[in-house]
Specification:
The structure is a single chain. The protein has helices at residues 2-7, 12-19, 24-32, 40-50, 54-57, 59-79, 86-99. By secondary structure, the protein is mainly α. The chain folds into two domains: 2-57, Orthogonal Bundle (434 Repressor (Amino-terminal Domain)); 63-99, no CATH class. α6 runs antiparallel to α7. The longest helix is centred in the middle third of the chain and has 21 residues, at 59-79.
Length: 105
């Protein structure tokens, strides 16, 4: 985060003002040090300010969330039946994409 802020020539207080964050500098510092997880509104605000996707701005958090969702998708896949209706097949296809499996027809 800090590198994007430095590239934009903004100080922490200015970023806080743009994000509408109270106690600005301290919170921005914690976001930059990754000791505080931003709210969805704050994360989207960072995207707007720095013109970078969430996955680039918060790569560690993105990878953590991605791993959690994939694990849950695997659990759902394990519960699904082999004899699937068309709707269930679409659901299975969605889950396989999330898990990263090749799509099987």
């Amino acid at each position: 985060m800090r590198k994007y802020r430095k590239r934009s020539a903004l100080c922490q207080k200015e970023v806080a003002i743009l994000l509408g964050v109270k106690n600005g500098g301290a919170k921005i510092s914690r976001y930059e040090q990754l000791s505080r997880t931003p709210s969805l509104q704050t994360a989207l605000g960072y995207e707007v300010i720095f013109q970078q996707p969430f996955s680039e701005l918060f790569p560690g958090l993105h990878q953590e969330i991605q791993a959690q969702v994939r694990e849950r998708a695997k659990q759902l896949l394990a519960k699904e039946s082999k004899q699937a209706s068309p709707v269930e097949r679409r659901k299975l296809q969605t889950l396989r994409v999330i898990v990263g499996e090749q799509i099987k027809n």
